[in-house]
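Incident log entry.

Two folding requests arrived from the same account within the same minute. Monitoring flagged them as a possible duplicate submission, but the sequences differ. Recording both here for audit purposes.

Request one:
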Amino acid sequence: MKALSLLLVMLFASIQFAFAAVNINTATQAELETLKGVGPAKAKMIVDDRAKNGPFKSVDDLDRVKGFGMKSVDKLRSELSVSGATTVTAAPATKKAVVKPATATSAPVAMPEPAKKMSKKEMKAQEAAAKAAMPAPVK
């Protein structure tokens, strides 16, 4: 019975480590970017904080990094660890498309002229011209 209990405890412990794929103390910026909700900026802040303040003692210490509160830490908790190897199986999150600025060889874009304010006399003349241009109603 003790052996079975020990086996179950070890099984549950190994399941926890199987899901905790990213070690925040050793992961590179690219590995951290594979986490959902962690882009290049947040990944860099984790690496910079780790270099400045030393390793994280627990996953909860991640809230010391700007941009991470306990809510963010709780969402990522199942994917993080502070020991063991980092195993990344998925590709990093899709990057946003980079928009290149216009080059000197591209054609200039003509901007429409701003509308001018019309006087009442000009408005009446425009309305009369529009009415005159309309076809007669069919009977």
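Request two (distinct sequence, not a duplicate):
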Amino acid sequence: MASNRFVLAALAGGVVNFVVGFVLYGVLLSGFFAANQGSAVGAIKEVPDLVHLALGQLVLGLFLAVVIDKWARVGGLAAGMKIGAISGLLIALGWDLTMFGVSNVSNITATLVDPLVFMVQLGCAGAATGAVLGPRT
């Protein structure tokens, strides 16, 4: 039963991550990120490769399930959201600053805004993951 719940939690995190990412990056903030691209030409695909994008989101869902359930040994919506948000902020800030230092994919504005957006995205995915796992007793 616990392993089934773990797999469902990872899937829930991945699906929520995909949907929230689409809403945030693909709908609400697409214009902002387009306006704040760096000088790299053709770096962003016109049509995303949805198969690999979905696989990446599922891996992030699995990451959240491991951190929430196996490492932090917590559960529940609030704990999952907290872990997801903190993880999202730190992962994206580290990644974005590194990429800004070695590439021209985005300008400094997008580099500093993206971690905040990813914090919201992974916070939502963490909440779903934690909710499926349920509170620890």
